[in-house]
Amino acid sequence: MTSTSSKPHDLQALDTLTGGAFTAPTSGERAARIRDWLAGNPAPEQMQEVFKELSGRDKGAARLLREKLDELKRAKSQETIAAEWAQKAEALLAQPKLNIADALAWQRDAAKAGAPLSREPLAGFKVQLAERVKGIEDLQHRAQVHREAAVLLAQRFEVLSTKGWQDAQAAEESLRADVAHWQQQAADITADANWNSLDARFAPQLEASKAQLLVVSDAFHAALAQAQAAAADAAAPLPPVPVWADELRAARGEVVAPKAAPAKPAAPKVDPAVRAAAQDAVQAALAKLEQETAEGHGKASAGAAAALRAVLKEHGKLVEAPLEARVHAALVAAGELEGWQRWSADKVREDLVAKAEGLLKRPEGQALGGRKMQETLRSLRDQWKQADQGGVPNHALWKRFDEACNEAHKVVEAWLEKVRADAAEHRAHRVALIEEVRAWAAEHANPTDLKAHNRALHQFADRWRDAGHVGEKLFAELQPQWNEAFGAARAPFEAAQKASIERRQAMIAEAAELGAQPMLRIDAVKALQQRWQAEAQSVPLDRRHEQKLWDAFRAPIDEAFNRKTAEREKVSSAMSEHDRHVLEASKALDAANAGGDVQKIRAAIARLEAALRGEAPPPAPAAKPEPSSDGPAVGATEVVAPGQAAAEFGESAEQAPGSSDAEAQPGTHAPAHAAASPDLVAPADGADASARSDVAAHDAGEAAAAEEAKAPPAPPKPAPKPVVAVRGDDRPGNKKAEAVPAGRAGGRFGDRRDGARPGPGGPGRPGDRGAARPDGRGGDRGAPAGRFGDRPPRFEDRGPRLGDAAFRAQREALERADLALRKLAAQAHGEALTQVLGAWEQRDASRLPSVQELGRAVTPAVRSGWSQAIGTAPKAAPDEAAEALLRLEMAAEVPTPAEQLDARRALQLKLLTKRGDPAPAQTWGQDAGKVLAAAHDPASARRLQNALKALLRK
């Protein structure tokens, strides 16, 4: 009765405990309430009671309880196992001598037993044991390397014992330091906590190396001290080292008997073939060893050395002495290489680890980019592989190096991801551009504006070129599509270019036909050029191709014009006596220019001007013409410089023509001019004014030359007749004596048309150049002044008319003379200024230039004042000289040094208050005298030179 009555009470208590799990209406709600109850970590006894009651009611909800109970059971079991293996790990770590095999076996057996090595405390013990094992391995490696270092130090002692004792004395201190450092490192190794855990063979080996090194070191230092004593005292005993003893004997003056080579027994005769085979075998092994040693391969060189020793053991008796010496040298080099590689391998690895770890520790702003980081990591890994080839691997350094490289490679991965994203974006952009070009090509299949079409094509090409980088494979896929779309868009433009080239070729053929004609039609040439320009502006071509076509087009026309020019020059080659005189005077002026003498140049200019005025003696006596009552005689007028060739017939109506004009008046020439047929036929409205004037001049020249060639020798010329008006003279009140034939510029071949060139309204109209203006200012249009200031600024009557060659020769000669005079004047001005400064510096008034050399800006009174200031001792006050310098710079308007700007401004303000005083530009001569009266110094000399350089030119 008691048990039956207590069961409902237990179920009610369990239901309350589980949050209503027993009274839940559904299995899902029951499992949810059990899950919520388990989240509160109830006691295992309660979970056991609930599981016992619930397993018969709802197996699904009871499964949650069973899993939780099993988990607790496993955790309890693992805790027991973990405690057991933790005790074992503590025992291993507490041992003073840890066996590496026992530490590795602990980890292996714990994993087999199911111990939770990933949870504390076993995870911590695992790390401690791994670090202890790593320390033991590193210590073993250090001990091995230290033994090798002792061997190398001993070899250094042996090598120095074969050299002079003075060389050994020079290296003694470094050897002492190296031995002491080696001993300190050996002491650090033996003092390490893991030293007892090393294998038993390492301690005696290190002790033996230490004892051997100390014996060799002590013997070396003792022998060296004995050698030093023997060198200082001749009675002291010699050192036991043979090389040093022989050196000391030689220093004492003793005769060192050469060591007699021990007599070798006669070697038995050997078959030459056998000896040759032995030599070949040894040489092959030796070459292999030398190659590996030169390339620095430690492992390969060790194998090659072993092979060479085996061959040498077999054929050593048959090897000759030189080859045997090479073999021993190679073996020594291989041994040194192997030892040094073992010694330096860890140094190289440590450097590589430092470089790898420093890749992400660079200063701000100097971080490596993705590609540079990738190349650096690849290079570091290659160097690590190369270092591993020559030494014992070091797993601890490799782990650090690999972790650093992997960490740095994250930068490369981010960069590669960005490159992939950019490539995808660039691909989409290029595909969109291809589609855009295709749509544009379909829309502009028949373009009207070819220039705009070409610009659009260039813009598309630029956009494709700037569309960003894509991979080679992707570019090879997109490029054909782009070529197809761009070719379709360019097809109409290329067709138009092809048609334009055909039209231009036709125009080139037409130009060739025009150039081949005996009479060149200017209007046809101009019309053809206009057609070419219109074609070039409508259809653009490649610059080089278009230039070639243009050169081909203009070549025949240029050739025709050159041919006519050559004919014209041939006709004008026969020059008159007056032209020859002008040419000779021009050549004389050029010679005077080359000489650099001012007087000769001025004299040559005067002779040339006289020749231009016709004052040169004629080749034969001629009748003196009678002067006209209403005009000056021939040759009685003067002309100004040849640059003043304008207004040929712009003089007054009462002015008489020159000799050449007088020759153009007889009636015998006028019909010839009118009857001559022109070579270049140009309509009045088909060419410009310059073309018409050139054609007229050419026709006039050829007609005159032909007429002169046919006419017999002319009798002496009569006196010129007075001329009331000449061609181009349309001033009020003047009337033309006779009409000038249409299309003729007038005059004989060689006449200047500068003053009578027809204007827009034709000859004799108000638009003529050289004709009088309606405002009454005359036809001279403001004639310039004389060339060198020796002629009045007005138009004068010119001399006889000049031919083209003579005119150009005298004009160029006068221009060169003007330039030469200017250069000589500048040179003389600079020399005079230098002499003034030199006279000031030397205080020598005799070195002061004359008034003529100083120029018109310096009067005799000013020059006298300068002479007195220089000739006496310095007496001007520094303040007075400084103020005079400032006044000179103000007068010359030259800059003042920066440190004197305040003083100059103060002086300017002072001058503003004294308006009655003369300005600096009026008293610069006296101011210069004040400066010259002061003491000379370089700064003042430079300022005075800059000021006088400008003032003497005024």
Describe the structure.
- With 954 residues, the protein is mostly helical.
- Helix content is 65%, strand content 0%.
- The protein contains 31 helices and no strands.
- It has helices at 2-17, 27-38, 44-54, 59-94, 100-112, 122-161, 165-170, 172-190, 202-232, 242-252, 272-295, 298-315, 321-357, 370-388, 395-443, 450-465, 472-516, 522-538, 543-571, 577-595, 598-612, 659-663, 669-675, 689-710, 804-842, 851-854, 860-871, 878-892, 901-913, 924-933, 938-951.
- α17 (472-516) packs antiparallel against α18 (522-538) and α20 packs antiparallel against α21.
- The chain is extended.
- Residues 1-6 and 617-796 have low confidence and may be disordered.
Low-pLDDT stretches are 1-6, 617-796
Task: Please give the oligomerization state of what you see.
Answer: single chain
Instruction: Give the strand content.
Output: under 5%
Helical percentage: 55-70%
Helix-strand makeup class: mainly alpha
Helical run tally? 31
Number of strands: 0
Radius of gyration equals 58 Å
Mean pLDDT: 74
Largest sheet, strands/sense/barrel: none
- Termini gap: 149 Å
Broad shape: extended
